[in-house]
Specification:
Elements: E1 2-5, H1 15-26, H2 32-45, E2 59-68, E3 80-89, E4 92-95, E5 102-104, E6 107-120, E7 123-136, E8 142-149, E9 155-161, E10 166-174
Antiparallel strand pairs: 1-2, 2-3, 3-6, 4-5, 6-7, 7-10, 8-9
């Protein structure tokens, strides 16, 4: 298992952008939607709470379980290999709009595969069937990905559906 801990630091200064946003909001012909998006971007990038985004997650880990049956195993187990692996990422900071910390985004995706090696018609052959995103142990059907600030000033999370399973099959023949 591999564990990682990060402590990212904020280094950018966004005073110029804040001034430009203030000036734009005083002009009567600016789009309220664009102003709100610009404010959301500035709130996400310029905050004293620390770095934002998935790479700012304080903890992450990955793990692998891989088992290969012995070469002298009986019948269909001979040459069979099974594997399961996962990647976990902790919640992270999305931003601090209106002095409210918006946190989320954790995930724990699990993948699996079955592989078999044997000779077929005298050629060494590997057959592999896998599934990525078999399950997300941190989320059910949806997960938090970001936030938005409504016209009323309320901050709400944005959600997306978790990644659906992706199936793959491969056949490799050595000549």
């Amino acid at each position: 298992m591999i564990n990682a801990f990060t402590s990212p630091r904020r280094v950018a200064q966004f005073g110029f952008l804040a001034g430009a946003l203030t000036a734009a909001s005083k002009r009567p012909d600016e789009s309220p939607t664009l102003l709100l998006d610009a404010k959301n971007l500035l709130d996400t990038l310029d905050n004293s709470a620390g770095a934002t985004g998935a790479r700012a997650a304080p903890w992450s880990a990955s793990w692998v379980v891989d088992y290969a049956f012995a070469k002298d195993a009986p019948g269909v187990l001979r040459g069979l290999r099974l594997g399961v692996n996962g990647i976990w990422r902790d919640d992270y900071l999305f931003g601090v709009p209106n002095r409210q910390k918006m946190i989320g985004g954790s995930s724990h995706l699990v993948h699996a595969y079955v592989m078999r090696e044997q000779k077929i018609w005298g050629q060494q052959t590997r057959i592999r069937v896998g599934v990525r995103n078999l399950v997300d142990l941190e989320n059910n059907d949806v997960r938090k990905t970001s936030f938005t600030t409504l016209a009323s000033g309320a901050n709400v999370y944005r959600f997306i559906y978790v990644m659906p399973p992706q199936y793959s099959a491969e056949v490799t023949v050595k000549f």
